[in-house]
Amino acid sequence: MSIYRARSLIRLAKSKSNFNFTSPHLPVPCSIRRISSSIIPSHLERVGFIGLGNMGSRMASNLIKAGYNVAVHDINLSVIKMFSDKGISVKGSPREVAEMSDVVITMLPSPSHVLDVYTGPNGLLNGGNLVRPWLFIDSSTVDPQTTRKLSSAVSNCALIEKKDSWETPVMLDAPVSGGILAAETGTLTFMVGGPEEVYKATEPIFSSMGKNTIYCGNAGTGSAAKICNNLSMAVSMLGVSEAFVLGQSLGITASTLTKIFNSSTARCWSSDTYNPVPGVIDGVPSSRNYDGGFASTLMAKDLNLASSSAKELGLKCPLASEAKDIYAKLCEDGHGTKDFSCAFRHFYSGKDEL
């Protein structure tokens, strides 16, 4: 891609304005950065979105509000109806989404789901060797090996018709951080792997769903960044929970310890933003019986991905292994749907702040 075109696309990404929107079905932000449909680059206009769970439904809604022509697919018929009732195009399979899209975004629960959507019957790449989308973006949390396998499969296809500077389709791995609230308010952080020139050309799409986009490197590095981030997040949450329980047992309230942590060397996201002790911070999952947020089943899955990657590389990651076992136990004990901060109550038997 020429330097001139790259700069033009970057300038387009910076042209934003505010837009208010409310929906009776899906929680959406009161104010987001809107890209007028008149200035959306032609190669990004038609977006297919597959996977409309807690995260994907909100991400797709933000794209719609930003002016993109969006078609969606999910196996959950009730969420599909929410979109069709709003006049949004719904498709019966990933392949049908691909047939009308310039860009396809997937947001799915696990590597097996991603592989099925891409390469299974009626999958995105199952139309022979020819595909219409020039770009595939996977925002699922998967292992780097799966990402690189899919990236190779995409690059081995050919485009039905050339799109601007691209003669063959490309893929970006772009998992996210921020959770449901950030997905709703359009403030996600994207960790992106793949060709850098493609990443730059796609910035308008990312800016419609998030406030931070970090380029990580070649294919698979976005996925690698995400599992490293979640490994650190899990270990941090367990460490903070363990310290709070010890403090409670020694006669120190969690509120007092939180003040100490947050003004000293123990300060971290798990203490000052997402505190696991019920009654310490309002508005976080621990304040609503650990409902909502990032499910323990998903954390267990991500820790499995991190542990498997470490094992393949011959790396010692004892904290990842221990965290994986703890979250597996939480799931076995019936707490898999609860936010991962529930380890404080359901693994460590910590007490609520009265």
Automatic annotation (TrEMBL):
Pathway: Amino-acid degradation; L-valine degradation. It is found in: Mitochondrion. Signal peptide: none annotated. Residues 220-345 form the 3-hydroxyisobutyrate dehydrogenase-like NAD-binding domain. InterPro entries: 3-OH-isobutyrate_DH-rel_CS, 6-PGluconate_DH-like_C_sf, 6PGD_dom2, 6PGDH_NADP-bd, HIBADH, HIBADH-like_NADP-bd, NAD(P)-bd_dom_sf. GO terms for molecular function: 3-hydroxyisobutyrate dehydrogenase activity; NAD binding; NADP binding; protein homodimerization activity. It holds the Pfam family NAD_binding_11. One of its GO terms (biological process) is L-leucine metabolic process. It catalyses: 3-hydroxy-2-methylpropanoate + NAD(+) = 2-methyl-3-oxopropanoate + NADH + H(+). Belongs to the HIBADH-related family. 3-hydroxyisobutyrate dehydrogenase subfamily. PANTHER family: 3-HYDROXYISOBUTYRATE DEHYDROGENASE, MITOCHONDRIAL, 3-HYDROXYISOBUTYRATE DEHYDROGENASE-RELATED. This is 3-hydroxyisobutyrate dehydrogenase. It comes from Cynara cardunculus var. scolymus (Globe artichoke).
